[in-house]
Amino acid sequence: MKWVTPTKYGDLDITINLSKPEKDPKAIAAARTMKQSGYPKCLLCRQNEGYAGRVNHPARENHRIIPVTINDCQWGFQYSPYVYYNEHCIVFCGEHVPMKIERSTFVKLFDFVSQFPHYFLGSNADLPIVGGSILTHDHFQGGHYEFAMEKAPVETPVTIAGFEDVEAGIVKWPMSVIRIRHKDRERLTDLADHILLAWRGYTDESCFVFAETDGEPHNTITPIARMHDGLFELDLVLRNNITTKEHPLGVYHPHENLHHIKKENIGLIEVMGLAVLPSRLKNELAELKEAILSGRNLRDDEVLSKHADWAEEFLSRYDAVNEETIEEILHAEVGSVFEQVLEDAGVYKRNEAGKEGFLRFIASL
Fold first, then answer.
1. C-alpha distances out from residue 9 to 145, 150, 162, 169, 194, Å
2. Distance CA 137, CA 124 (A)
3. Residue 197 pLDDT more than 80?
4. pTM of the prediction?
């Protein structure tokens, strides 16, 4: 199920994915430290090609992997079984090694887009909460698709000391994005590494940014590379996975009031403006539609009660809620929730204090 929701950041793609199970953020984090056993070790290992499957591992009999060379190493290229967007592909390391964002990540991204200039390629972050659903196997996701974030303009051009020749700026986006562009990929790799290392160690208590607490690192980056007008372009999305008693799943993660729609980690694809919402919403939204039209009390319904506060709030803003308008209203409001999800996930908020904090970090580079 999919539709488009216009927002102040551009047109967000909203999808309800009927084939992918909803994952708990705590379970994803736990999987990172579990001992890997069995065959294949994970869903990305090359041994999945032609695998017949087992009770807790899906069959991949018709799955095929194309060998590609990335950073002088053997990697695999496959199309995703979940097909979130056009030519959605996964590029993964030939060895079962964990996700790690480092200088070589940028080299690998540029290696790929040099070979496939019509594709973008990005990486999930390498820390729990702000990473994707698989942290145990180094991989990227790409494809032939233009996301809302790519279309979003640079709203604040910046100059970074020592890299005055590199075009740079803050993107008009709910999350905190630095976009850098240059014809020389080496210059971009140097600058991206410089930003990454600076961000890893950066603390600004006034913006609730802590590089680490009790020895646990919090800052990382979600990078996305593409070719644009003959130049290499790299978007660096600043991420932080700190938790508090008020936000045990993450301060820069969908807050609890949005969990009725989205509770999972905000990974690469959603960072770029495509919502991947859980399959339960197909039935829940259909039931919600009927309940609203019939005037039922949502709080008396075991399944729909979690949507009651949300529904009461948005229904008060519409004059005509009927059979003709209800679906359009629900689609618009789910899209609005996803917009808030991205704003929650943004480290620097889109207010004066957030803008000043973001520019303070850039000035520190």
1. 18, 11, 31, 16, 28
2. 11
3. yes
4. 0.92
